[in-house]
Q: What sequence folds into this?
């Protein structure tokens, strides 16, 4: 054992290199990325439509304008019905489970790729960063599209229920009515939807990616999906 | 010459399968000289791939030590292990393990990206390596657009990207037909003789016999015997048809 050249430390890659690799990966895997993103879009669209629909209902009720079709038969004093709360909670759960599932699947089918990258000298942190970037981008774009679709759906539904009055009382901005609950407004709901979609996508993907990155490469490459 | 590049000391690897413990390696002691072409042979389940993983720092032994270039692998930090995989070893796998989203060229440049080599330099090197393995005209094809033999050539070019001193090949010919397998073996052998790369290969392909300097027979997680080249040549004749 004469050759005792010490083994050096692996270097960190510049951020731009990670960005480039993750975008390349999204681009080539476009079809698969779209499906994963669609999962996020659907979850957020559902949540935002229910939520916005509720905001519209409350706003119009506050304005004294009753729905032509009475959707508020169970309306409580706070202006929000238990049925609506139930709907929002349900849509939130569907959204969380749906996004977590699609991200989990998308990462699990790439365990071999993670193992291979480690064989070639990738640091654990680099692997996680790659997935963070990919999922952050997917999460944000998916959630934004979902939020817009959801809002559109709620507006169409509102038009059917309230007619053009909807636009006079449209709850775009946050408002605090004198004797009612605080209203977030549609813009805030869209924003919250985007943030939620992005956070869920990032957690849903970086947690399994981190777990895979911690495995010895041999084990990661053995994993069959 | 006594330049040992790999040394294992009583290496044991156990896998937990539910309540059972499977002892895949049961105390392996081998020494591999620099520049050697070593074949680890044995039936499936003998532990040769497990030993391969230990030597390549792809898995951790349950007990025992692995030394490479005199370094005790268990004492290396995360960053050192990553650098070791990046610079010192080139891996070739049975199922190629190319990244499907990257072209042949992109696969070969990846280890150089990890090594921090400039874009210009790594492009030149990738072109040179792909030319060397005979894929100069298919450089920008995705792995899915290449045949098995071509994919394995990309894997070989990728393994050589950072000029490793050791090439580890795990059943490199198992998924290939006889002729393509032969070509791949010749290519690996050429690296060994022309560039002095130490080649450690896990295999049960008899074609690998006549290019190996030594053959380590692994059975039930133990070294059964170690044969030298001269002993091998006689046996190849007996196998019939495999030798020239």
A:
């Amino acid at each position: 054992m004469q050759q005792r050249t010490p083994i050096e430390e692996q270097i960190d890659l510049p951020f731009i290199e990670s960005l480039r690799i993750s975008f390349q990966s999204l681009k080539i895997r476009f079809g698969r990325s779209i499906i994963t993103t669609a999962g996020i879009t659907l979850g957020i669209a559902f949540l935002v439509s229910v939520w916005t629909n509720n905001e519209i209902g409350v706003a119009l009720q506050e304005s004294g304008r009753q729905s032509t079709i009475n959707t508020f038969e169970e309306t409580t004093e706070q202006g929000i019905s238990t049925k609506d709360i139930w709907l929002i909670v349900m849509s939130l759960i569907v959204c969380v489970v749906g996004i977590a599932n699609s991200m989990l699947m998308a990462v699990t089918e790439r365990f071999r790729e993670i193992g291979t990258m480690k064989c070639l000298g990738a640091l654990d942190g680099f692997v996680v960063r790659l997935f963070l970037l990919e999922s952050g981008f997917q999460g944000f774009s998916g959630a934004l599209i979902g939020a817009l679709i959801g809002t559109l759906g709620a507006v169409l539904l509102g038009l059917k229920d309230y007619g053009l009055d909807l636009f006079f009382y449209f709850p775009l901005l946050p408002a605090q009515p004198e004797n009612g609950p605080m209203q977030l407004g549609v813009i805030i709901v869209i924003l919250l939807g985007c943030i939620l979609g992005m956070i869920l996508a990032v957690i849903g993907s970086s947690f399994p990616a981190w777990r895979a990155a911690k495995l010895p490469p041999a084990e990661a490459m053995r994993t069959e999906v | 010459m006594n330049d040992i590049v790999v040394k294992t000391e009583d290496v044991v690897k156990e896998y937990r399968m539910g309540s059972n413990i499977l002892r895949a390696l049961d105390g392996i002691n081998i020494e591999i000289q620099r520049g050697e072409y070593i074949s680890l042979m044995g039936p499936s389940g003998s532990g040769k791939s497990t030993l391969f993983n230990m030597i390549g720092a792809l898995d951790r032994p349950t007990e025992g030590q692995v030394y490479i270039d005199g370094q005790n692998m268990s004492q290396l930090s995360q960053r050192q292990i990553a650098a070791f995989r990046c610079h010192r070893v080139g891996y070739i796998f049975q199922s190629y393990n190319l990244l499907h989203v990257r072209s042949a060229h992109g696969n070969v440049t990846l280890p150089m990206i990890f090594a921090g080599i400039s874009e210009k330099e790594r492009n030149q090197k990738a072109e040179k390596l792909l030319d060397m393995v005979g894929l100069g005209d298919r450089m920008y094809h995705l792995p899915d657009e290449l045949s098995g033999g071509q994919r394995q050539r990309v894997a070989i070019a990728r393994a050589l990207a950072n000029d490793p001193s050791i090439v580890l090949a795990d059943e490199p010919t198992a998924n290939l037909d006889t002729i393509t397998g032969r070509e791949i073996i010749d290519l690996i052998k050429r690296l060994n003789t022309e560039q002095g790369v130490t080649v450690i290969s896990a295999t049960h392909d008899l074609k690998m016999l006549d290019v190996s300097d030594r053959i380590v027979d692994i059975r039930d997680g133990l070294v059964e015997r170690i044969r030298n080249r001269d002993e091998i040549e006689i046996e190849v004749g007996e196998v019939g048809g495999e030798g020239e």
